[in-house]
Amino acid sequence: MRHIRRKQKKRRSSDSKDVGEIYSRLLDHRPVIHGEIRYFIKEFEEKRGLRELRVLENLNNTIFEANDKILPKCEEVANQMFHTLQQTEQEESQLQTEKLRAAEAQRIADWEEFMKEQYHLKTMVNEEHTKAMEHLKEQYAALEKDLPKQAL
């Protein structure tokens, strides 16, 4: 009987170990969860690091491309636009200067024409005045001749 009891005891002990193991596998997930958490954190940090590294590499490539290709093109276009703008400004300035000179020449011509017309009008007024004075002298001379006749 002792022998049977020992077997039963071993069996119970073995059964309790099995039950404990089954319990820990089925209901106690802490070791598995801790392992999964460590794995997730490791993967997240690696992926995050790789993602950040890729972002930084892309940013670095973009900056080098901008410095090597885009910046010289922008500078060239800016210089072309500057020269075009400067040339347009010079042409506009020359055009304004020519317009001012033409307007000044026209004013001078108009002034000379005005002065000629004024001289011509002055000459006509002086001639009319001279004729009127002669006509009045003749009238007064005729009146002076007739005055002694009328006084009698």
TrEMBL record:
Matches recorded under InterPro entries: Bloc1s5
This protein's UniProt keywords: Coiled coil
UniProt keyword Transcription, yes or no: no
GO terms for cellular component: BLOC-1 complex; transport vesicle
Pfam families reported for this sequence:
Muted
Coiled coil regions, renumbered to chain: 85-146
Per the record, the similarity remark reads: Belongs to the BLOC1S5 family.
Name of the protein this chain belongs to: Biogenesis of lysosome-related organelles complex 1 subunit 5
Identify the species of origin.
Ophiophagus hannah
